[in-house]
């Protein structure tokens, strides 16, 4: 089976955007743009290339995602791509068969566009490029004024641009000193045949402040869904419990096949409910030994990935822990921060509360604890 990897180029300074930080780390409806772009490729191995000094920004934007360490880029996009390709070639599994090279500034790339480029490569193309015909009238500025450019046979190139890995790495090595605008131009210099696939108008490249205003407006449209989740676990012998991703000291443990984190289990079910994807037991059966003692952050990240695959976004979540003990208050902020990290949210979009049942029922008798969660998700129209 051919192996395909994705290289996401996020090494630029984004100075034309006029924003307070490099544009790839700017928030779009509460989520860093780089994270949105990476999540569009969740079904493939992803390597990110970042700019010098952007390590902390990248770590915050990509927190909770299972990715290799970002590769430091170079002074130009071309050099950054080459360094990323070299990193893929030296990876633990060796070089992939194919690579998709994508700009971090295109966060709305669709699964259909990704699949079209990948399928072209799998069918034998050495290079594949998504393109759209130019629809606007074009004008060229000249010394004597302006002239109209015929738009017949003019197309706009997008990313991801896909290649046979060995071909594009060799092209970058051979033409390292040649300035080109994208990898397809470099491939053509190297004589790599290119196949064109249909692009997507939604696959916008965000450059200016106005682009970000438009992007946020697009993200505000669509359908908003809310769902609930509930979970409970019995106390057993132990000296700590896991709640909302945080280890909390206690004179008991919680009985469960995984780490029995009722807070994350309830929130996972709420997210799955927003997209009609069943419940946590269907995705991670308690009869499967792979999940024995598993950390529940894996379950929550999986639910978030299913939402991202549909082009959706988690916009808010609220967890209520129901127990007499342990006391949640001292750990509340850490719990909020951990959930925000897993889901890639601003912490103000995450709420964790606690209550008791005033001594009534199994939680009142301190036989166990429970959690309920509500999540809100926005899905594209």
Tell me what you see in this structure.
The protein has 381 residues and is α/β, with parallel strands linked by helices. 30% of the residues lie in helices and 27% in strands. The protein folds into 2 domains: 4-219, Alpha-Beta Complex (Spore Coat Polysaccharide Biosynthesis Protein SpsA, Chain A), CATH 3.90.550; 223-379, 2-C-methyl-D-erythritol 2,4-cyclodiphosphate synthase (60s Ribosomal Protein L30, Chain: A, 2-Layer Sandwich). It contains 12 helices and 19 strands. The strands form 5 sheets. Strands 1, 4, 5, 6, 7, 10, 11 and 12 form an 8-stranded mixed beta sheet that branches. The chain has a 5-stranded mixed beta sheet with strand order 16-13-19-17-18. Strand 8 (138-142) and strand 9 (145-149) form a beta hairpin. Helix 3 crosses helix 5 (165-174), helix 5 (165-174) packs across helix 6 (183-189) and helix 8 runs parallel beside helix 10 (297-309). The chain is elongated and about 85 Å long.
Helical percent range?
25-40%
CATH superfamily of the largest domain: Spore Coat Polysaccharide Biosynthesis Protein SpsA, Chain A
Question: On the 0-100 scale, what is the average pLDDT?
Answer: 93
Rg is 24 Å
Net shape: elongated
Give the number of DSSP strands.
19
Task: For this entry, give a set of tags.
alpha/beta, 30% helix, Spore Coat Polysaccharide Biosynthesis Protein SpsA, Chain A, elongated, 12 helices, 60s Ribosomal Protein L30, Chain: A, 5-stranded mixed beta sheet, 2 domains, 8-stranded mixed beta sheet, 381 residues
């Amino acid at each position: 089976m051919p192996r395909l990897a994705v290289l996401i180029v996020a090494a630029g300074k984004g100075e034309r955007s006029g924003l307070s930080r490099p544009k790839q780390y700017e928030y779009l409806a509460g989520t860093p743009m780089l994270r949105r772009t990476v999540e569009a490729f969740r079904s493939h191995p992803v390597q990110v290339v970042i700019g010098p000094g952007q390590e902390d920004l990248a770590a915050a934007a990509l927190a909770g995602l299972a990715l290799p360490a970002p590769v430091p880029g170079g002074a130009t996009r071309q050099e950054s791509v080459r360094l990323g390709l070299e990193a893929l070639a030296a990876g633990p599994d060796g070089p992939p068969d194919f690579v998709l090279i994508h700009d971090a500034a295109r966060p709305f790339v669709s699964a259909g566009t990704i699949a079209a480029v990948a399928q072209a490569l799998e069918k034998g193309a050495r290079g594949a490029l998504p393109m759209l015909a130019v629809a606007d009238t074009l004008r060229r500025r000249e010394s004597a004024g302006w002239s109209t450019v015929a738009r017949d046979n003019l197309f706009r190139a997008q990313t991801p641009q896909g290649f046979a890995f060995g071909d594009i790495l060799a092209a970058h090595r051979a033409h390292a000193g040649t300035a080109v605008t994208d990898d397809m131009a470099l491939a053509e210099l190297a004589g790599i045949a290119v196949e064109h696939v249909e692009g997507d108008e939604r696959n916008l490249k965000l450059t200016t402040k106005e682009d970000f205003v438009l992007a946020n407006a697009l993200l505000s449209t669509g359908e908003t869904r809310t769902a609930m989740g509930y979970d409970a676990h019995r106390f057993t012998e132990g000296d700590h419990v896991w709640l909302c991703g945080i280890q909390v000291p206690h004179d008991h443990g919680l009985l469960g096949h995984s780490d029995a984190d009722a807070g994350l289990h309830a929130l996972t079910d709420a997210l799955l409910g927003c997209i009609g994807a069943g419940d946590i037991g269907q995705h991670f059966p308690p009869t499967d030994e792979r999940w024995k003692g598993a950390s529940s952050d894996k379950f929550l990240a999986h639910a978030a990935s299913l939402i991202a695959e549909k082009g959706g976004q988690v916009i808010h979540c609220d967890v209520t822990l129901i127990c007499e003990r342990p006391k949640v208050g001292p750990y509340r902020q850490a719990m909020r921060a951990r959930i925000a990290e897993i889901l890639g949210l601003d912490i103000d979009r995450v709420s964790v509360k606690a209550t008791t049942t005033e001594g009534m029922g199994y939680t009142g008798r301190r036989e166990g604890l429970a959690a309920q969660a509500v999540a809100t998700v926005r899905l594209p129209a």
